[in-house]
Amino acid sequence: MPTISVGRDRLFEAIGRIYTKEEFEDLCFKFGIELDDETTEKAIIRKEHHLGDEDISEEEEVIYKIEVPANRCDLLCLEGLAQALRIFNGTDPIPTYGLSRIEKSTMLKMHVKPETAKIRPYVVCAVLRGITFDEARYNSFIDLQDRLHQNICRRRTLVAIGTHDLDTIEGPFTYEALPPEEISFVPLKETKKFRADELMEKYKSDLKLKKFLHIIENSPIFPVLYDFNRTVLSLPPIINGAHSAITLKTKNVFIECTATDRTKASIVLNTMVTMFSIYSERKFKAEPVEVIYPNGESYIYPDLSLYRMSVPLSYINGIVGVNLSAREVTNLLNKMQLHVEHSESKEKEALLTVSAPPTRSDILHACDVAEDVAIAYGYNEIQKIRIPCLKPQTLNEFSFLLRMEMAMVGYTEVSPFVLCSYKENTSMLKRYDDKTRAIIGNPRSAEFEMPRTRLMTGLLKVVRHNKDHPKPIKIFEIGDVVVLDETKDVGTSNRRRLAALYCGSTSGFELIHGVVDRIMEVNAIPLVSPGDENGYYVQPSNEPEFLPKRQATIVYQGKKIGCFGIVHPEVLENFGIPDPCSCLDLDVESLLLYGAAD
Fold it and tell me: Using CA atoms, how far apart are residues 450 and 423, in angstroms rounded to an integer?
């Protein structure tokens, strides 16, 4: 979940009450957020430089680090957090957001050129008039943009925010896409003009901006926003122009969001507007901007209308596990910033018409409403009941017993990610033609490209991140891998496997062999001669991830169910592990399938 840093004293002043740390932790818990840490700016700097901790002095400003839900964009700044807590405490009513009433003919306009469809097709805009900044508000305004960029904007790939001093520019505005050599302007924090292609080279050494260059640098055209006088407002999603930079003296703010996703852009714009309209001359009001597309379609932004849905009272009571009246549910939802009206269905069932303000973009379904009721009611207040259940699956019971046995022989269970990169699952294990793999169609990052087909990858990554841990390292995992399966409607199936790894100054091959023998012993599977199907035996194998002639296949009832051996030095080098390792990989389901766990 995202973590925001806010000054404790400013937060308490905005909430309207001073809390002890314990009282504020309790409030956070009730509201569904968490106070993660109490620190200071100096302590943060000391931590970044790996210096020792010091006691917090009375002169230092105390900073609270608070974890908020990833879908609550309105909680990413002090203004939104304080407002939400005041409403939750019953101090403030739910604000009513709206647009300033101005004639459409006098409304600021943004004209979109057709070329933008090839790179970043959408733009949304709004104006905050008569805003009053001080240093703290200004910093919060900038911080909110950064947090939105990191979260819902997906590091500016979906949405990029630009904010400008409206008094330094003149409408109407145009959103265009031009070759980089045709774009020239003075970027933020600079004093001379650069062409857009020159900026790409310049920012390759900028620690903050270089991570956004890939979004447009290989495109033949770059998106750019101009005002009426052809002054560049911004080169999204990279940098704003210096001409329209926001300062503490800024009174009128023009906000534009360019995007590849119109819905996300609207949510981001609404968040910026609603959070800081509190400082506007007309509180909770924003001035609309008309966006006109090449096909003649036009849209008025921001859209601050309420999102309405009907939710049966019985659904809320059933999913939460309470028996509340419509009035009680209404009061609880009001604490969570949701308006409620009562009605009845044709079947005389109580219906609640719930209206979500533009700050609550996370309300999409009736279950979201039920979740807010549960939060406001208090999870600890919900009566605990025993679910009429359900006998555990045999595979899960068997897996639990295996975990107990592995723990008793001195191995520690780990839980790596199910997803991994293609390279980690193949070439880093000296495997180059893995035809059993499934892949993620649109992976978020190169680190999570596919579901794993073997558990060994995860164990090696755990050792890599803990290579300074005292040796030996003895870890195991019992989990699912994903393999292609044409007999399934989804084309894949899960297989439950057990993997164990020993890492120390010696190979530990005999210890891994001992783990195999122990697993078979507790399952009453005898060791037999090769070819005998009444038990298990081991025979030489040739798996690429293991050292040749230092590995074996486990055969049970004539079927190969696993392998173990000394991990190949090249594999260890690929994962950055300096010590020898031995590993076991065993198909748990095969033991059940062939009757071992009866």
Answer: 10
Taking the chain (598 residues) in runs of 10, the rounded mean pLDDT of each run is: 89 93 93 89 66 61 91 93 94 93 91 95 96 93 94 94 95 94 94 93 91 93 95 95 94 96 95 94 94 94 94 92 92 94 80 94 94 93 76 83 93 93 89 74 83 92 91 94 86 91 88 92 90 90 92 92 94 93 93 61
Considering Cα of 481, then 485, then 488, then 491, what sign does the dihedral take? Answer: positive
Q: Mapping DSSP to helix (H, G, I), strand (E, B) and coil, where does residue 353 land? A: strand
Cα–Cα distance, 104 to 459 (Å, whole number): 62
* Global confidence as pTM: 0.68
pLDDT at position 1: 78
Asked if residues 267 and 361 have their Cβ atoms less than 8 Å apart, the reply is yes
What's the CA gap between 457 and 499, in Å, rounded?
10
Distant-in-sequence, close-in-space partners of 514: CB < 8 Å, separation ≥ 6: 409
User: Residues with Cβ < 8 Å from 67, sequence gap 6 or more?
Assistant: 1, 2, 3, 33, 34, 36
Q: Return d(Cα 586, Cα 563) in angstroms, integer.
A: 7
Classify strands 450-451 and 473-484 as parallel, antiparallel or unpaired: unpaired
| Tokens representing residue 376 in the block | 């406001």
Q: Check residue 392 and give its pLDDT.
A: 67
Structure tokens at 305: 């209308």
- Three-state helix/strand/coil letters over 458-519: HHHHHHHHCCCCCCCEEEEEEEEEEEECCCCCCCEEEEEEEEEEEECCCCCHHHHHHHHHHH
d(CA 467, CA 579): 8
Tokens of 459: 């164990």
Q: Which helix (H) or strand (E) holds 457?
A: helix 456-465
pLDDT of residue 592: 81
Nearest residue to 264 (alpha-carbon basis) of 357, 120, 146, 152: 152
At residue 597, the pLDDT reads 43
Helix (H, G, I), strand (E, B) or coil at 401: helix
The maximal CA–CA distance of the chain, rounded, in angstroms, is: 92
8 A C-beta contact, residue 210 and residue 237: no
Q: Would you state the pLDDT for residue 594?
A: 60
Residue 545's region, left for phi above 0, alpha for psi from -120 to 50, else beta, is alpha
Which residues, 6+ apart, have CB-to-CB distance to 539 below 8 Å?
A: 530, 552, 553, 555
C-alpha 528/C-alpha 536 separation (Å) is 6
Query: What is the reported pLDDT for 446?
Result: 82
* Contact assessment for residue 429 and residue 420, using Cβ atoms and an 8 Å cutoff: no
Cα Rg, the chain, nearest whole Å: 30
Per DSSP, the three-state class of 305 is coil
Stated length of the chain: 598
Helix (H) or strand (E) holding 13: helix 8-15
Distance (Å, whole) CA 469 – CA 503: 10
| Pairing mode, strands 108-112 and 285-292 | parallel
Residues in a beta bridge with 413: 476
Angle between helices 366-377 and 313-320 (to 10 degrees): 60
Can you give the pLDDT at residue 410?
92
SS3 assignment for 485-497: CCCCCCCEEEEEE
216: which residues sit within 8 A by CB, 6+ positions away?
A: 119, 120, 222, 223, 237, 238
* pLDDT value at residue 595: 54
